[in-house]
Specification:
The chain has helices at about 5-10, 60-65, 100-115, 140-150, 160-170, 190-200, 210-215, 240-265, 275-285, and strands at about 30, 40-50, 70-75, 80-85, 120-125, 135, 175-180, 205-210, 220-225, 235-240, 270. It is α/β, with parallel strands linked by helices and about 290 residues long. Strands 6-5-4-7-8-11 form a 6-stranded mixed beta sheet, with helices on both faces. Strands 1-3-2 form a 3-stranded antiparallel beta sheet. Strands 9-10 form a two-stranded antiparallel ribbon. The protein starts with 6 loop residues before the first helix and ends in a 5-residue tail after the last helix.
Length: about 290
């Protein structure tokens, strides 16, 4: 099976950090435990020794086995998790590349950045309800688990963002940084679900993934249009007037979504699948104040 994301790309993500305001309640401990009374820490991972690190946290057993100086890192239990809510409904399998594949690769990249920062990262795929999920954990073993789940998911079923968020809120115990990734083709809407996330105290980042052909269809003549989620087929004669009407309705929908998210100060990114993933992460998310 072709890797979801290659190691060379992941290495280029290594220096990125999240800067969404209010993401953490706690504070990371790199090489020392917290001096604050009542705050516990737990082992998270290893990193290479740097001059000035406390020798007490070098793992001498690993030095003997691997001939490398590795330092234990710890994280406070009060840090806030990163949640990946990824849409895997039937409409996400459309496009070239499929929107679901782009979403999975983006989710893998965000998971890697979070785990490198010693965050807990969890994966919550959905269609019209929450699908089998990966609870938030620390450490690079979690990356392997997330990649395994992402590679095994098939995009199927209808979309219901509000129901999926309801299931996610029931499954997750605390607020965190939520990446909501979808094409937003949800007949039941999205306002209630996003409002409930914000009410709980989650920081939400919305990434709407679309195929370029959805933004500017290249269609003409007599066609049979299939609804991949509802199963209906409609015969249409597509001409210039039809395309203009479609683009106007789409523009109105996107403007409504943009106004709603802007009114709640939710970072929003409209992402066509022909945009290189590296450009989305290194440029758009950085300019949008999500990463630095």
């Amino acid at each position: 099976m072709e890797p979801l994301i290659d190691e060379a790309f992941l290495r280029r993500l290594a220096n990125l950090k999240f800067i969404v305001k209010g993401r953490r309640k706690g504070k990371l401990a790199g090489t020392h435990p917290s001096p604050r009374a009542g705050t516990s820490v737990e082992f998270a991972d290893y990193r290479s020794y740097s001059p000035g690190d406390d020798f007490r946290y070098i793992d001498w057993n690993l030095l003997g086995r691997l001939d490398r100086l590795l330092v234990k890192t710890f994280v406070h239990e009060s840090d806030r998790p990163i949640y990946l809510l990824l849409d895997f409904s039937a409409s996400m399998r459309l496009g070239n590349p499929p929107k679901a594949l782009y979403a999975a690769r983006f989710g893998a990249a965000i998971a890697y950045i979070g785990l490198r920062e010693l965050d807990r990262v969890g994966l919550y795929p959905f269609s019209d309800q929450l699908l089998p999920s990966v609870a938030p954990r620390h450490g690079m073993r979690q990356m392997t688990h997330i990649l395994h789940v992402l590679q095994g998911i098939s995009a199927t079923g209808t979309t219901s963002l509000d129901r999926a968020v309801e299931g996610f809120l029931a499954a997750s115990r605390e607020s965190g940084l939520v990446f909501l990734v979808s094409d937003f083709l949800s007949r039941t809407g999205y306002q209630e679900g996003i409002s409930r996330l914000l009410h709980r105290g989650d920081d939400v980042v919305v990434v709407q993934i679309v195929d370029p052909g959805e933004l500017h269809p290249q269609l003409e003549g007599s066609l049979e249009i299939h609804d991949v989620e509802g199963g209906r087929a409609v015969d249409l004669v597509v001409g210039r007037r039809t395309l203009i009407q479609y683009e106007r309705r789409l523009e109105g929908y996107l403007q409504e979504l943009t106004r709603f998210l802007a009114g709640h100060r939710v970072p929003y990114f409209l992402v066509p699948t022909d945009l290189p993933l590296e450009d989305l992460i290194h440029e758009r998310l950085r300019v949008g104040g999500v990463l630095q």
